[in-house]
Amino acid sequence: MFARLLLFLFATHAACWSAGPSLVPQEQFKPTTTATELLNSVVQPRGLHIAHQVILVHPSDDLVSVLSYAAAGDVLLLANGVYKPEATDDSALVIGKNITIAAQQTGQAVLDGQGKRRVLEITNGHVLLKGLNITNGITHFYGGGIAIIGGNVRIDSSVINNNNADYHGGGIYISSGTVNIDNSEISSNTAVYDYGGGIYISDGTVNIDNSQILSNTADRGLGGGIYVNDGTVNIDNSQISSNTAQYGGGIRIEGGTVNIDNSEISSNTASRYYGGGAYLSKGTATNFSNCSIAGNQAGDNGGGIYAEQGARVQLDDRSAVQSNKPDGCYGFWSSPACNKQ
Question: Are residues 53 and 87 in the same domain?
Fold first, then answer.
């Protein structure tokens, strides 16, 4: 009889998860247990831990242990406050399973790397990060705030700011998987020596919607706001502004396909060379639809957009390229929208 119960419970767990990353209704998480109760049940086993619990966590709780002992499919609901998870490796928190980490009150739960290590590393699973502030992460390698190595990740209503990577992705590093960034702000992050002050995208599918990429820096490298090495990137209803790099102040596209719709690329700076707003390399495909590219500046050519020979660029007539210095569009292509400069 007990064996049948076990089989039923595990089958139910699998069936619940097969539907995807929506673990519980996202608009209202109701705690079913606390972090203290969870950890006590590990020390003094009280039976099976069935997934899809909503575990209420406070800043005084050991978040590293709570994450470790939470079952796949659980929700960690963070009460207001600053969380300073301690770890001995490069990342404060490592996620490799289906999990949600959500703020009880949007913007009031802070994951703080304390200037010691990367805040989050995601290697696998369906992962939802909701309503969080991820800050003060640092790494000598990639992904100061978040490193996404794989999985299906959604970042919703969150702020990733003031993180630092020596090389790629001061705010977020993405090397594969599917990543959705919704209603979020990526700001004041730095890639010290290399690429992608705000976001570095190596591969995968990345969708950015209704979000802001602001005041990020790759001052000695490429792509102050966003650097795209490969993959498919869709940016919609978003703003890429006040970012700085040597090449491609707002966005540098080195490979892959990028679609930018209903968005603003403004007040970005290529401090030394080309592409104040955007730098498009040969072999890339970039489509701008109903976009404003304004007030950007380059040290050399392409204050608005710089396109290398062999770059495929579509800039529709609803887009406007205005008030960029020293010029609006520069490269081996032409578009009526560039005439609006």
Answer: no
- Separation of alpha carbons 43 and 318, rounded Å: 62
Assess whether 152 and 45 both reside in one domain: no
Q: Describe the strand order of the beta sheet including 190-191 as a list of residue ranges.
A: 138-139, 164-165, 190-191, 217-222, 244-247, 269-270, 297-298
Cα–Cα distance measured from residue 174 to residue 155, given in angstroms and rounded to the nearest whole number? 12
Angle 133-181-240 (CA atoms, 0-180°, nearest 5)? 90
137 and 267 belong to one structural domain? yes
pLDDT one-digit tens code per residue, 184-194: 999 999 999 98
- The Cα-based distances of 29 to 56, 101, 291 in angstroms read 10, 11, 37
Neighbours of 33 (CB within 10 A): 15
Residue 285 placed within a domain: yes
End-to-end CA distance of the chain: 76
C-alpha to C-alpha distance for 166 and 205, rounded to whole angstroms: 24
- Look at residue 332 in the predicted model and tell me its pLDDT: 60
* Cross-strand bridge partners of residue 298: 270
Last residue of one domain, picked from the residues 72, 98, 133: 72
pLDDT single digits (tens) 8-17? 333 333 333 3
Beta-ladder partners of 313: 286
- Nearest CA-CA partner of 268 in 240, 290, 287, 246: 240
Please classify residue 230 by burial: count the beta carbons closer than 10 Å to its beta carbon, then call 0-12 exposed, 13-18 middle and 19+ buried: middle
- Cα-flanking dihedrals φ and ψ of residue 192, to 5°? -65, -50
Owning domain of residue 206: 80-340
Count how many domains the chain has. Answer: 2
Task: Tell me the pTM.
Answer: 0.91
**How wide is the angle at C-alpha 230 spanned by C-alphas 212 and 140, nearest 5°?**
70
Cα–Cα distance for residue pair 290/109, rounded to 1 Å: 36
Residues with Cβ within 8 Å of residue 107, at least 6 apart in sequence: 131, 133, 157, 159
